[in-house]
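Obj.: predict assembly geometry.
Materials: sequence records (below).
Method: joint structure prediction, all chains together.
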Amino acid sequence: MSTVDTLSTAEGPASARPATKSQGGGFARYLLVRFLLIFPTIFILVTLVFFLMRTTGDPITAAQGGRLSPEALAELRAAAGYDRPLLIQYLEYLSRIAVFDFGSTLTTNRPVIDVLLTYGPATFELVFYSLIIAFAVGIPLGLAAAYYRDKAPDAFFRVLAIFWYAVPIFFAGLLLKLVFAVWLKWLPVAGRASVGAELQMQALPNKTGFYTIDAIMTGNPAVLGDVLSHVVLPGIALGLLTAGIFLRLVRTNVIGTLSTDYVDAARSRGVAESRLLRKHAYRPALIPIITVIGLQIALLLAGAVLTETTFEWKGLGFALAEFLESRDFVAVQGIVVLLAIIVALTNFIVDIIAAFIDPRVRF
Amino acid sequence: MTAASTTVSAAPKRRLRDRLPVVHQVRQSVGLQRGMLVAGLVMMGVFILTSFLAPLLAPYGFAQRKVDGVAFGTQQPPSIEHPFGTTVGGYDVLSRVIWGTQTAIIVIVVAVLLSIFIGVALGLYSGYFGGWLDRVLVVVCDAIYAFPSLLLAIVLSIVISGGQSDLWGGVLAAAGSITVVFIPQYFRVIRAETVRIKAEAYVESAKVLGASNTRVVFKHVLRNATRTLPLIITLNSSEAILTMAALGFLGFGIEPTAAAEWGYDLNKAQSDVTSGIWWTALFPGLAIVFTVLGITLVGESLNDLADPRLRGRRRVAKAAGQVAETSVVPGGTLVAGPGGLAGLEDGETFDEHGIEVKP
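Observations (raw structure tokens):
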């Protein structure tokens, strides 16, 4: 219900495009400026991460330190170019990032971009499902809380939202696992699919890495069921954290719009309360909500790291944790920088959507 | 705007009871709001008391594995000797939960103090003097702000402790990495307030009277710019605990012999859960939830009381004080994205003191 609402609102202005075309110049300019703003953000983060990681020494010493003789270590460092001045290394790193070369991992000697392609779809899938749960839970409850403002349901939902925020995602994950997977045995404990299903999907000629899509392509409902049953617990663990945030967001903004004159006017015209809430108060409140969702992507990705570790969900966060464990800091740096780019791009897209819906954002 | 602030500064001193930050809010709140605030305060009280009384309350030391030469045993279910059972490493769960409050408090205090000092100093400088440094700082802080804070914390804890740690190494790694994530928040708030206050008549008159920049900044600007700080401190404290626990869970925790840390215990409890052992994960986790819940309830209530859009309707007029500048709890109040939301809430951007309520 609520997701449908969101979609229709997001698409609404798109279909009404000819109307906005008269101000197309303003929008194009905003688009360009906002796009150019991505680069300083990424540049700053890349620089920050690079110099921070290097203050501890070079990655080879960190990974091999103690295991090799000093001579062998020095040889390796020279071969990788870590004995050159830091500034040269930095400039080289920047120029390689510019062509999307994020270096190779030390432990497995794979290009970092390869790691992204292998593990990225899993993280994307997890974030996607948890967003669905967050929307499906957060928005209706937020609307209800705003409507029953300062009454019992409001109190309950707000405390619930704070509670979801207060429960660390990995603790929620462990509890869900304990109750639903270990004790009740309703759902699988960990992983993205069981071995049998995974084998069937591996056999596909053009597999995508998105297990949901792959499972559909196998044409075997059992495989799809298996994949979906694996996503339930991690999706809930990550989704509820975000649902709490959406709940509060919707509540705050809808309370704001519920007290406007046009809602009073509509009410006096005899518009039904439910329609009042869904159309008159919720729609205008949606714009700030969409913008804030952009900021939540950062939080979602951090949450994904923890969720993936908890559920052995083989995504980017899981890979990151493994590389951290093996002290492969080239890989860590590569993944962190990649995630920075993803966050910057997502924020860009969300800002554009918000500007598209609401001309006031563009100035 | 000017008139309103001069009334504030010219007003006679309020009674101490009204000036204490939290007491004032408790008196201002009504009904549910008061319930949440008081519940949060009680939980925070329990947390702080526990940390001070840990040596008395905890049955064993946090790194103790045997008593009278007899080992506790590993993964023992709850019993009279060990009400919360023992961990896979053979520690008493109850003792580690209790001692964990101390580690949490230390991390909160160090992290919040560090980020306040640095964030406030940068914010004051940036807002008051402006110039190219201001612009650079704003862009850098925005970049950090938009980035997953946990990832930054991971990078920093690699830098600070190399990933393994004794008590102070671990505390500094956790606190330091949290600090960097928090600085932009203090920076933003203080900078915005400074820019606003700089234009006030009393700052101008101080300058005309020949006051030095240092005097103006510390005497006039700083004093008036700090009103939102208690709120941010509360909200940051809960975030500090969550970040430390997350770092611990990812294996960047403090060694069990150096201090008790809940995140580390949860990390070690992961495999227990799969085999149905619940007590090693449940109790440290509940400790985190309890602490964060308490602090967040207080922070949220302060936030709501300060936000004119959310304040209980009956006592709106009596409210004084804080500005809802916080974008600290995600989704707590309206946050402007990089695209900006200025102008979205016409008529709602000024509170009763004429202070602009805008992130």
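Conclusions so far: Residues 93-129 of chain B form the longest helix (37 residues).
To do: check interface contacts against the pulldown list.
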